Amino acid sequence: MEEKIRLQILEEIEELNRAQQKMLMDFAMEGYLDQLAMILSYMEQKKSSQCMKAYPREIQEKLAEKISSCKPRDGKSLLYAARILGDSGFSDASFGRYRELVKNQPLNEVEILNFTIEEKNPILCASLCNINKYYFDEIQNLDDRAIQKILREVETLELAMALKDATDEVQDKIFRNMSERAATMLKEDMEFMGPVRLSDVAEAQSGILSILERLVSAGEIVYSRNGERLFV
After folding, report:
1. How crowded is the C-beta side of 68, counted as CA atoms within 13 Å?
2. Is the pLDDT of residue 228 over 70?
3. How many CB atoms lie within 10 A of CB 92?
4. pLDDT of residue 229 exceeding 60
5. Separation between Cα atoms, residue 112 and residue 129, nearest integer Å
6. Does pTM surpass 0.85?
7. In the 3-class helix/strand/coil scheme, how is the chain assigned residue by residue?
């Protein structure tokens, strides 16, 4: 990936982060205390403090108490923040420039850039990874021979991690190309993992896509979409 493109992608990610934070801040200035506390617990510390200053001291004290009971990045707060963002107009249309910047870039490199924002903004990270996820979902369109070639080069734990967030169609495609015993063991590994980090799933999926890209470049697999060969 060219350094210029890499920097443009990072700049666009940061711009999306700023847009999200502004929407949350605008809502927080007029929100109810319980919901407001959840939003403030999600927001960046500097912006959260800035919002707090807009309220009377007694409200600030109540908010501080409520925020202290909110677990940072807990599911309830993230879900509520995501809902507010959606209601405020932060939707797929917001990612137009990002899509344009990443569409011709190696997926595994794009995902690595996406990871840089996960700790700072897990909702945005999830959105960024889901935009690119369709590439992994298209594995279901490979023929059985191609799937088996890929499986020979993937570690079981990496495969289990990659499938944790895959569609049912992709999972079924993989399971059908394994022995019954191997498929059963893989399903057990996936269940044993329990909840996993989005970045770990995306990293595992990117690793498998890198194998696919190499096999396509070597002429061992033909991978196409709408008649157009990919990765070549």
Report:
1. 6
2. no
3. 10
4. no
5. 10
6. no
7. CCHHHHHHHHHHHHHHHHHHHHHHHHHHCCCCHHHHHHHHHHCCHHHHHHHHCCCCHHHHHHHHHHHHHCCCCCHHHHHHHHHHHHHCCCCHHHHHHHHHHHCCCCHHHHHHHHHCCCCCCHHHHHHHHHHHHHHHHHHHHCCHHHHHHHHCCCCHHHHHHHHCCCCHHHHHHHHHCCCHHHHHHHHHHHHHHCCCCHHHHHHHHHHHHHHHHHHHHCCCCCCEECCEECCC
pLDDT value of position 232: 41
pLDDT average, residue stretch 114-122? 81
72: alpha, beta or left? (left if phi > 0; alpha if psi -120 to 50): beta
pLDDT digits (tens, 9 = 90+) for 130-185: 776 667 777 888 889 999 999 999 999 999 999 988 889 999 999 999 999 999 99
Q: How far apart are CA 127 and CA 109, in angstroms?
A: 16
Q: CA angle, 214 as apex, 208 and 217 as ends, to 5°?
A: 140
Bridge partners for 229 per DSSP: 224
Q: Can you give the length of the chain in residues? A: 232
> Would you say 39 and 80 are in contact if contact means Cβ atoms under 8 Å apart?
yes
